[in-house]
Amino acid sequence: MKNNYGPIGYKPNPVVQLLNGLFLLFLVATMLIPIWNTLVISLSSNASSMEVGLKMWPSEFSFEGYQTVWKTVRLWEPFLNNTIVTVVGTTLHVVLSAMAGYVLIQRGLPGRNLMISLIMLTMTIPGEAIMIPVYQVVKELDLLNTLTSLVVSGLVSGFSVLLIRNYFLSIPYELNESARIDGAGNMWIFVRMYLPLAKAGLATIALFEFVGKWNQFTPALLYITDQSKLTLQIALRSLVVESDATSSNFFMTPNVRMAGVMIAIIPLIVIYPFVQKFFVKGIMLGSTKE
């Protein structure tokens, strides 16, 4: 007889457990040390940040880097643009995906299986293959150099629609039928019944979309040339790349660059713990249903 971890009474080899633990610690270190080194450099003074080598603690603690990158470099402008695109784009993405997922669970919907197949088909097409056609559409709609072009880019995805649909399928359909007998309409059932019961699924697609929108690079590179409309990732590239970051009258020290990197990743680090429990539950349920 076996349980989820192996035969009952099975005792894992202590040496194997030790090796597994060391391997996991190594993996964690490869991810945490670069972030910690970036944080330490960002909190160093201009002079100490130029010292060569891995830094585990600032020799001269200072917020010079953050002050310079925020006020002098004016990183707050791309940060604000990025926040607008991410919040508006993520909200619309979640709402539209949830509405599409709700439609696809309706029994008796004509062509439901065909629509699901077509949605799945869109997931097989890489974004790079349709980059030029999408650019032409954005251009024809006169959306170049607008934040709207970044909001509508990837506004709905087949992955999110099918994930939230599978989550809705886990809710007993008898609740839907009972509400209809009591006179409730589709909008009431969707807003008052399905959305509250699908918080985990909604949080999952919201987290995926939030991270995608916050880090999107290629659409911003294609659609935006106006300096006042640049998003954070494009501005960050100019900060980090040596040749772009140094001008004749202003030298970009490492603490300024690393402060820009930390400002870009802090929102993701802050948000993830709040949605982690929903994320794990939502992705597991969405992957096991029909």
Automatic annotation (TrEMBL):
Family: Belongs to the binding-protein-dependent transport system permease family.
PANTHER family listed in its UniProt record: ABC TRANSPORTER PERMEASE PROTEIN MG189-RELATED-RELATED (PTHR43744), POLYGALACTURONAN_RHAMNOGALACTURONAN TRANSPORT SYSTEM PERMEASE PROTEIN YTCP (PTHR43744:SF9)
Localization of this protein: Cell membrane
Membrane topology type: Multi-pass membrane protein
Keyword terms: Cell membrane, Membrane, Transmembrane, Transmembrane helix, Transport
Residue ranges constituting the ABC transmembrane type-1 domain according to the UniProt record: 79-274
Transmembrane segments: 21-43, 84-105, 114-135, 147-168, 189-208, 256-275
Name this protein carries in UniProt: Carbohydrate ABC transporter permease
